[in-house]
Amino acid sequence: MATLPRATGRGLTAMTFLLETLRLGLTNLLLHKMRSLLTAMGIIFGVAAVIAMVAIGEGNKLQSLEEIGQLGARNIVMRSIKPTQPPQQQDSKRGFMLQYGITREDTTRIEQTVSNIEHLVPMKRVATRVSHVTQRVSAQVFGTTPQLMAVTRLQVARGRYLSDSDMHKSANVAVLGASVARRLFPLEDPVDNWIRFHRQSYRVIGVLKQVSVVGGAGAQQLARDLDFDVHIPMTAARSRFGDQTRIAEAGSFQAEKGEVSQLFVAMVDESHVLDAADQISLIIGREHADKDDVKTIVPLALLQQQQRTLRMFNALMTAIAAISLLVGGIGIMNIMLASVTERTREIGIRRAVGATRRHIIAQFLTETTTLSSIGGALGVGVGLGAVFMLAWFKRAWPAAFTQMGVPIPTDWSIIAGLTVAVLVGTVFGLYPAIKAAHQDPIESLRHE
User: Fold this and answer.
1) For 342-360, what is each residue's pLDDT tens digit?
2) DSSP string, 26-62
């Protein structure tokens, strides 16, 4: 029965020692408020920089992944590119025929050769300008199939998308991108209205939701703003416009022949994408080896590459921010070494009245750890404030911050910042504490 009181007494003694040490440490810090604040500046800005840099990196990562993800991770996207070399097929002395890009034969060959394909969706560009009454707007008009909605992240905001019935009837119907609808119909509902291009009228049956990837990774790969697309049935595009486009200029003409402007190859699963991309590259390379008129885009590979790049960016930014913590730690050590010299007589008095070296080490470590912990907490506040301010600027002026995503603070960066701050205070405060504890008590008492 006597053991419990002794154990409890030892526990109370240890608790009293810790509380007294903490009180002394805080008292000494408060005696020099400005010096303590300036000493903690390195820790404050170091932690704030870590949180802000990681938040910016996380925001950029999510924006880039979302933009590339618009193309679909299960998709392989092929795009016809107009070659820069001179045309090979001359029609007459005053004109020529330029044939390039993906052909229907390429599409058939891919469908028959590559396995595990879920959808094969062609797109054919037939116009670059549309109008409604007096309103005109530059837009990309594509013939396509209803399966496009299954292979992309496009969504209908109003009305409906193309149907199999529209395809069967070669109907004069169109689905507008968000920007096209807004510019052509600023004051009225586009659905059931009419648009015109190439002297033909098309009834609007639907409007797509805003995609907002202009200038982003997804739009850059497709070389256009998806919100300025207009979709009509592929059957209508082929029957009404054929495969040739004729351009007349000052007594000469240029005719272009393109069967498929863009082709989405959607696989049943992401695990088949990279192998299928290799097969498609071989097929296209064999048929278009000398033309360089087809570009193949593999969003999954782009996503993986972007993730690796962003991980390296985050690591670099965090390392740069960590330098501030290192500088802050050096500052703490410098100030505490000066404090040891300042408080030599105090150390001698404490040793004379019974304080051990352990007590002196504990006191100085308490001061440095408390200082760095408070600095870390203030750094978290400064870092989060900077993140929220950047996010506000991004939302208020999106056009000025198109290359930056909305900063997103992460839990791990806050925890890591606080943990490193405490460790910095402990590690860099250890040497001054040991030096203080090994002061000779008699010489310390004589110190003036």
Assistant:
1) 777 777 777 777 777 887 7
2) HHHHHHTHHHHHHHHHHHHHHHHHHHHHHHHHHHHHH
Domain ranges within the chain, ordered by starting residue: 20-67+306-446, 82-292
Distance (Å, rounded) from C-alpha 28 to C-alpha 33?
9
Nearest 5°: phi and psi at 185? -130, 65
pTM value is 0.63
Q: Within a 10 A sphere around the Cβ of 315, how many other Cβ atoms? A: 11
Q: 153 exposed, middle or buried (CB, 10 Å; 0-12, 13-18, 19+)?
A: middle
Question: Closest Cα partner for 242 from 144, 125, 122?
Answer: 125
Model pLDDT for residues 429-440, shown as the tens digit of each residue: 888 888 877 777
Do β-strands 117-132 and 173-176 pair in parallel, antiparallel, or remain unpaired?
unpaired
**Cβ proximity of 83 and 294 under 8 Å:** no
**Model pLDDT, residue 351:** 75
* Nearest C-alpha neighbor of 139 from the set 99, 182, 173, 100: 182
Summarize pLDDT for 19-75 with one digit per residue, the tens: 766 676 677 677 777 877 887 888 888 888 888 888 888 887 777 777 666 667 788
| Rounded Cα distance, 128 and 138, in Å | 6
At 119, phi and psi to the nearest 5?
-140, 145
| Residue 313 burial (10 A CB sphere; 0-12, 13-18, 19+) | middle
Q: Residue 193 is which amino acid?
A: N
Strand partners, 253: 95, 248
Distance CA 283, CA 302 (A): 21
Amino acid (1-letter code) at residue 1: M
CA nearest neighbour of 56 among 365, 332, 313? 313
Higher pLDDT residue, 263 or 413?
263
C-alpha angle 130-133-137 in degrees, rounded to nearest 5: 30
CB 135 within 8 A of CB 161: no
Higher pLDDT residue, 21 or 230?
230
